[in-house]
């Protein structure tokens, strides 16, 4: 509001003032992804939504650098977040976008890097050999013009198979996709890596050729940024995507048993990558149900797995189990009333109960709070009353 009044008082043209206000709002929103760099950039609404977080874009750039790539074609540059990261590590960049305004904004954002060229063009039409490109990156659009999410990879813009086909010309191909992409149909010759930042699964990446130095497979990269430092942890399996069953998939079936003294919820990237079995092994625990990604243990998990006092990111969030009971609204309501619980955090897996409906049914009153986990234990609906463990 203060900016709008200042622009009006200074006699700025109303259209220019409106554009300035829009950029101010978009920059404020983009800071969550790009930090202070956002203050010197221009944006579109779609560009902010699709822009890669600065931390993750830097990891993309390092992957290309480590693979020996010298010039990257960013086929779907958007406002240029990934292209900025590529140029920032010294790579030559040819960035393209089919939208004229978006391409102009990317050119402005990349103005400090003479080694970066931006064109308004269809990236798939590039002659990669003539352009001396030895690395390709794409982040296909996964929403319609109306903002609806697209789930069919064949309907992405550009379609995934059209981008994958480029590895016949340039082996070093990387593609960013949504973390909810189904495993079925993904190429077996890629490393598919799911990435989470502070518990939020932000993307999956498909990496081909020299961009996957450990070979094909699936992996989870867990990043935590608390305290001004970044901690990371990677879990990996050489078993390719699509080679395991649905649900919390495993290379080997982990043990299943009754609730112990502790409960762990694996990071979302670990679950998406089908690496819950590795989390079970590292935590020294067992599953509550063979189809649900909750791990229980009789002793606290090792620091390397849960992040306590460790330089590595935790692969799971831990809770101390206080009580376990069969699910029933009447029983649970009486339990919470006896303990003066007026606020509850409700977590759930493997149940149709909705937290909002249950909270209304419980009619909570009291000064204390509790955390409830609704899930199946050996096929039976149960409630675990837990308290979060420190990290």
UniProtKB/TrEMBL annotation:
Keywords: Methyltransferase, Transferase
Domain named THUMP-like: residues: 317-388
Cross-referenced InterPro entries: SAM-dependent_MTases_sf, Thump-like
GO biological process terms, semicolon-separated: methylation
Single GO term (MF): methyltransferase activity
Keyword match Manganese: no
Entry keyword Transferase: yes
Full protein name: Class I SAM-dependent methyltransferase
Species this chain originates from: Xylanimonas protaetiae
